[in-house]
Task: inverse folding
């Protein structure tokens, strides 16, 4: 049969391409993507009736379609459908269960709030969102990206909240992508970023369906990518990375204190080592004398300048962090403890670093752990090194330069056309109350005008 | 690329000019300057950063000294005697003897950008004795003197080096704390400098009055063995018609009463107020009159008067002074009167 041969040729006689002939009715599927049980149940049992006309009526498969074009046939095969070729061509969904179940979030854990997270199935992920937003106004537009991967991408938004120009902006970017393939949401995130040469992420990757739902209700756009357990939320601002969405589950008075602490952590993790190096190497007059004496006594045995010491320890910590992420957890979780305690203590005893430097770097790393987005943590590392390098030439003046470089850089960024420093600059009260400091849930009645232009009110008349 | 090159060049060419690693500096916590045989003698009190902080046997500080006819040379010689680069920005106290010309040394210190000029200026008789002393509480004498001066209210700003030099340059009198070793480092009284030369020390009685005029708390006022303690006070000057009225308002608490006073009676407090008002009036007027006789003004009255009457400037001895004293003794304990 011509069509079967054509399919064979298209797949280059791939070993997992199965073609069966049952009384001149061909069934074609990819063994690696399909469930043999489903094929037996939905197709082979029906074919024994020897009446393919009744195939559509008799089979129990939830999704059976009549296929019109050859391209569609290939697409269905690649998506785990089984093709039945008789007088007509049918595609029956017989996808194998290649995905894991819905599990607890691992990268964004929290004590309160829902415990489910996305998995690699776009359908499951969509279901998790639709279970929370039961509205026909939640639109999902599907696109396929990748010449080879044909990855399904869904753009989700609530049609009477989200701004049309933001939606169009993202759809245009997605349509313009011409690439061999994407295998994860993070690939797509990089492809649709406003600026490529920036340290900071301009879209959020999250595995929490509740966070996605909250942002959809605020007028943001969500992109789901098949075979990725992360959803992309656009636009995303600097403040969103500092304060997680799970804050809204707690009483605003309590969480605002934590939010303040997080901003202090932000300053500490970015500039504390540089500030220490500036004080020790240039501006000793700014340190109270008793403290300076302690520093001087502790540093007496260290032969290196303080900036070399700081860079050395920061690199060691970066290596520790990387090894901690890469090292399989089953092999033992003590690697970071060994690194931090044993190496730190040994380094102090060996006179390579001073104890105060260990404290400074430990505080820097502990404060960086307050932030969950790994890309933000990586970008903070760049700012930290940049500020130390400037400080080792210019002292406190270099630190101020680094702070201004950092501010100028983030002021220069946009996410889906909205400034990255939003809601601080430009100031926007409704979003400020969501991302920077919360207000009482009862008083939180409006959406930000930067994210919606038709449906401002989210509570009351 | 050009921008990056420019930034790198700017950093490389302009950076590091004031770079000094903590290990490479000798932290000087105090300086002593005296005059011997018409030569300046400079002593640095240097913190020993090699010392083990926990060990009591280790020497926590050491002194370096040098002598020359010129202050600049003396300081240079002392710097050369140090193994490390001298660091002057953490100086807590500058001790001088009464024969040192303050304006002369200030000229050098103000011109030298390595000096931070916000340190205390204090008087002593023998700098070696002070710097060689080892206190039980604080091994570093400069820090100990700094702590001593900081806890006394009037010394907070007015005794800083730059403030005093500024007053001297304008021709006003200044007073410096006089440090002695009396079992421990102690502030004995104040020494007065008039026209850049040492005039005299205040007597113990004068120093007591000076303290309570300058808001030092818990200074006792004694009248025939009855005493009160001033815990809050205000000193104002009202300058009108070429007269200066010194207004002193004090709130005090009873310290000790020898007579049997009926404290339940409101009139008793009125009597006490009047009694101590007279005492304070006598003390202050005598104190200021004595200073006037010596043409000394340590309360800043001349400065205020001459600012107002700048066309007719006067010395303190020629200014007419009036006094308005008000004392309010706490009626603590009178509440029980209302309880039935």
Result:
């Amino acid at each position: 049969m011509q069509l079967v041969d054509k399919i064979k040729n298209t797949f280059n006689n791939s070993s997992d391409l199965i073609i069966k002939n049952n009384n001149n009715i061909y069934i074609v599927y990819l063994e690696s993507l399909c469930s043999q049980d489903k094929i037996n149940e939905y197709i082979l049992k029906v074919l024994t009736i020897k009446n393919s006309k009744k195939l559509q009526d008799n089979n129990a498969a939830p999704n059976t379609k009549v296929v019109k074009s050859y391209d569609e046939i290939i697409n269905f095969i690649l998506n785990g459908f089984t093709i039945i070729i008789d007088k007509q061509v049918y595609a029956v969904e017989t996808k194998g269960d290649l995905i894991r179940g819905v599990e607890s979030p691992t990268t964004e854990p929290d004590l309160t709030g829902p415990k489910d997270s996305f998995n690699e199935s776009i359908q499951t992920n969509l279901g998790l969102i639709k279970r929370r937003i039961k509205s026909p106004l939640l639109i999902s537009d599907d696109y396929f990206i990748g010449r080879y991967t044909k990855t399904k991408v869904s753009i989700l938004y609530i049609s009477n909240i989200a701004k049309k120009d933001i939606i169009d902006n993202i759809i245009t970017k997605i349509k313009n992508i011409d690439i061999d393939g994407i295998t994860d949401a993070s690939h797509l995130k990089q492809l649709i970023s406003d600026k490529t040469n920036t340290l900071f992420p301009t879209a959020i990757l999250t595995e929490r369906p509740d966070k996605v739902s909250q942002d959809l209700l605020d007028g943001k756009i969500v992109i789901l990518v098949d075979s990725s357990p992360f959803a992309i939320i656009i636009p995303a601002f600097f403040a969103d990375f500092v304060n997680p969405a799970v804050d809204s589950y707690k009483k605003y008075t309590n969480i605002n204190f934590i939010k303040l602490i997080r901003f202090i952590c932000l300053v500490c993790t970015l500039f504390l080592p540089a500030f220490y190096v500036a004080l020790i190497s240039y501006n000793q007059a700014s340190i109270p004398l008793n403290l300076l004496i302690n520093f001087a006594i502790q540093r007496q045995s260290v032969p290196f300048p303080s900036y070399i010491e700081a860079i050395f320890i920061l690199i060691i910590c970066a290596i520790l962090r990387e090894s901690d992420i890469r090292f399989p957890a089953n092999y033992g979780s003590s690697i970071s403890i060994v690194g931090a305690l044993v190496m730190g203590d040994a380094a102090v005893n060996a006179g390579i670093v001073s104890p105060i430097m260990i404290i400074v770097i430990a505080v820097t790393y502990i404060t960086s752990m307050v932030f969950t987005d790994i890309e933000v943590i990586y970008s903070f590392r760049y700012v930290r090194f940049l500020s130390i390098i400037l400080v080792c030439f210019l002292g406190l003046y270099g630190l101020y330069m680094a702070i201004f470089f950092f501010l100028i850089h983030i002021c220069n960024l946009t996410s889906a056309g909205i400034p990255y420093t939003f809601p601080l600059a430009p100031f926007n009260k409704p979003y400020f109350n969501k991302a920077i400091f919360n207000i009482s849930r009862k008083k939180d009645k409006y959406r930000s005008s930067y994210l919606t232009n038709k449906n401002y009110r989210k509570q009351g008349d | 690329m050009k921008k990056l090159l420019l930034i790198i060049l700017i950093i490389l060419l302009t950076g590091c000019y004031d770079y000094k690693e903590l290990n490479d500096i000798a932290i000087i916590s105090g300086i002593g300057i005296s005059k011997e045989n018409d030569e300046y003698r400079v002593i640095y009190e240097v913190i020993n950063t090699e010392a083990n902080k926990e060990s009591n046997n280790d020497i926590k500080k050491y002194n370096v000294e040098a002598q020359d006819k010129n202050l600049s040379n003396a300081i240079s010689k002392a710097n050369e005697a140090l193994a490390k680069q001298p660091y002057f920005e953490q100086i807590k106290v500058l001790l001088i003897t009464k024969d040192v010309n303050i304006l002369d040394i200030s000229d050098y210190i103000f011109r030298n950008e390595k000096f931070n000029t916000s340190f205390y200026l204090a008087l002593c008789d023998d700098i070696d004795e002070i710097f060689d002393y080892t206190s039980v509480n604080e091994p570093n004498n400069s820090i100990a003197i700094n702590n001593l001066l900081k806890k006394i209210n009037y010394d907070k700003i007015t005794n800083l080096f730059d403030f005093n030099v500024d007053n001297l340059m304008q021709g006003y009198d200044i007073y410096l704390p006089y440090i002695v070793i009396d079992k421990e480092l102690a502030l004995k009284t104040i020494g007065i400098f008039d026209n850049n030369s040492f005039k005299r020390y205040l007597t113990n009685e004068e120093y007591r009055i000076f303290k309570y005029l300058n808001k030092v708390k818990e200074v006792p006022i004694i009248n025939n063995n009855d005493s009160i303690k001033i815990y809050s006070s205000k000193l104002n000057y009202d300058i009108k018609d070429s007269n200066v009225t010194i207004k002193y308002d004090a709130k005090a608490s009873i310290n000790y009463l020898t007579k049997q006073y009926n404290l339940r009676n409101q009139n008793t407090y009125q009597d006490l107020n009047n009694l101590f008002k007279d005492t304070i009036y006598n003390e202050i007027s005598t104190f200021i009159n004595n200073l006037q006789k010596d043409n000394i003004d340590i309360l800043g009255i001349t400065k205020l008067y001459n600012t107002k009457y700048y066309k007719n400037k006067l010395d303190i001895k020629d200014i007419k002074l009036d006094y308005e004293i008000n004392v309010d003794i706490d009626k603590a304990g009178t509440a029980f009167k209302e309880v039935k």
Observations:
- Chain A touches chain B through 24 residues (CB under 8 Å).
- The CA atoms of residues 300 and 354 of chain A lie 8 Å apart.
- The longest helix of chain A spans residues 252-281.
- Residues 250-415 of chain A form one domain.
